[in-house]
Amino acid sequence: MSQTPILSASRRIRSTPFTRRVTEHGVKGYTVYNRMLLPTLFESAEADYHHLKKHVQVWDVACERQVEVNGPDAQSLMQSITPRNLGKMKDDQCYYIPVVDDKGGMLNDPVAVKHADNRWWISIADSDLLYWIKGLALGKGLNVDIFEPDVSPLGVQGPKSEDLMARVVGEDIRNLSFFRHRTYRFGDQNFLVARSGYSKQGGFEIYVDGSEHGEMIWDMLFEAGEEFQVRAGCPNLIERIEGGLISYGNDMTRENSPIECGLVKFCHTSAMADCIGGDVLMAEKKNGPKQIIRGIKIEGDAVPSCHGPWPIIDASGAKIGQVTSAAWSPDFGTNVAIGMVDRDHWDIGNQVSVQAPDRNRNATITFLPFE
Amino acid sequence: MSQTPILSASRRIRSTPFTRRVTEHGVKGYTVYNRMLLPTLFESAEADYHHLKKHVQVWDVACERQVEVNGPDAQSLMQSITPRNLGKMKDDQCYYIPVVDDKGGMLNDPVAVKHADNRWWISIADSDLLYWIKGLALGKGLNVDIFEPDVSPLGVQGPKSEDLMARVVGEDIRNLSFFRHRTYRFGDQNFLVARSGYSKQGGFEIYVDGSEHGEMIWDMLFEAGEEFQVRAGCPNLIERIEGGLISYGNDMTRENSPIECGLVKFCHTSAMADCIGGDVLMAEKKNGPKQIIRGIKIEGDAVPSCHGPWPIIDASGAKIGQVTSAAWSPDFGTNVAIGMVDRDHWDIGNQVSVQAPDRNRNATITFLPFE
Lengths: 371, 371
Prior knowledge:
The structure is a homodimer.
Chain A: E1 6-7, H1 19-24, E2 29-33, E3 36-41, H2 45-54, E4 57-60, E5 66-70, H3 74-81, E6 94-96, E7 99-100, E8 106-108, E9 111-116, E10 119-123, H4 129-140, E11 145-147, E12 151-157, H5 161-169, E13 181-186, E14 189-194, E15 203-209, H6 214-224, E16 231-233, H7 237-242, H8 278-287, E17 291-298, E18 310-313, E19 319-329, E20 334-342, E21 351-355, E22 360-366
Parallel strand pairs in A: 4-16
Antiparallel strand pairs in A: 2-3, 4-12, 5-10, 5-11, 6-9, 7-8, 9-10, 12-15, 13-14, 14-15, 17-20, 17-22, 18-19, 18-21, 19-20, 21-22
């Protein structure tokens, strides 16, 4: 890709209820996620990063589209798409769930938002999970409606996010537990809020139900947020790598099982019989995966931007894995990276070499999240 | 969207086997299509357009990913996803097929490439059709394998495309009929070539099977193409609107039926009983659609770039449709556009008004393709 490729506009790449505000706040870069605009840059990756870890940011994550699963067969359909046991999930809970195909390959890693046994939202990563679930339901003849509602998440992330949200919706929000949701009042209407988000700095996601309310809620957050130095922000590559937040399409694809992705804790033996691909995952759980996701510290100055897998090689020059996300971390004073490493080479502390586009670099296998 | 948003790089937005060559040839803009880079601009939209209509261009359309459907149940599965009757399709034919859900809504408008009753490629527009087909097959318990092979189409488009291809693979290619395919020799290997492509200037698509061959084939086309003034190009917005080539995600979505999209000729009564959503389409075919896709001539100077629907209104100010693609056409000397227009207002020659972002403009309903 050339150095400064321009993203051409079209209706196919959807704007969000917040795009006008994001533009006013000086967005400098985008990616496309679920065929929707996702901001990637405001001031600079490092300035955005330092601000996120110190203050509070409002994120346009409308691209986390919702798949609504609604009807008598919703609960059993949901259990069939994931190896995570949903049996004890409460109606106010959110679960991060690996979704796999019949070969145990990752199709998406969404957050399931349960409203009731017969009503769910699935807040999706970057693939058309609606097509998968709708195809399955139709093929099986299930009694369930599946559609994309007009719901756009707005993230509030950073250490001051709770203070900001308390100012907007009231002190009661401080009692909301991690990955639980409840409705709160914004203006004269209630919206579902979850304590969740794609950073490790703490925060919330407001599920803006009805595009027409987007700017009103955005503006309420900025009016109340001045004293907290609120800014427009977005998922930050450096912070998410440090925090070990893996990204579908980047760090894993259909080629990878959830066990390879370090998600064995969400592959429950008790749920395997009801899950598509459960037999494959059971076997892998028993025998162990061939490779696993790891943190990788890459030596030297800042690496170039990573837009393809970089081979990881051992001392003999043999390929033993690949780096899929990488960035310079100011706080760790090194390049931090995420990648898959083969079984015989995945021990923490193992010294390897990474074939970055500029040159080979020494690197060390380490924990995710970085410590 | 801001004026010059930059597209951030990541592995999730996939490069293609041709990306290095495209970069060397000075690509200036991209869009993202099936999570893959699709060039949108080389010299300028108008210069690219004039060149395309006069000479020959090589297009990186690797983003037309293939879904391979392989196995004993392939033929019946294929017929279940489209209202187009596939019964008489030959093993060397390509069919443009609407793919619809149970409500008759468009899920994709791919080209089906038949190899044999039990082996198909589906060359997809911008949605994860693999998820739909795989979900359906698994839900129904069909005996069929569904996967994305490492196949990347390379387009050769323009009036001199046949001369160029004849120089590279031999004179016999002149006998290849429209939407038929055959294998031809490039270097020491055979590749499938179809007479097809996303322009009205004539041309071919080479299905590059194996990413490692991409640059070799690209280079053969440029070496042989000097006398034909070959250039790197891409689907051109102006030319595709003039030619009435509709675009999934732009001109139609899941909200639209194929009949609304002007595709009633591919909705065969004889195939409806075997097609998901066939009952809905039969009823619509009988009663007529509520709206239909049309050409729209928009008066005045060049319209701004279109990245959201622009309302079409009648003399009373009531909304009667929407414009979804628009551009200035040098050859027609007017703005050409594609949009959906309500039943009572869709007559050719009807005078309407379009609410473009800069101002309201007078417009006329017309034929697609433009004449």
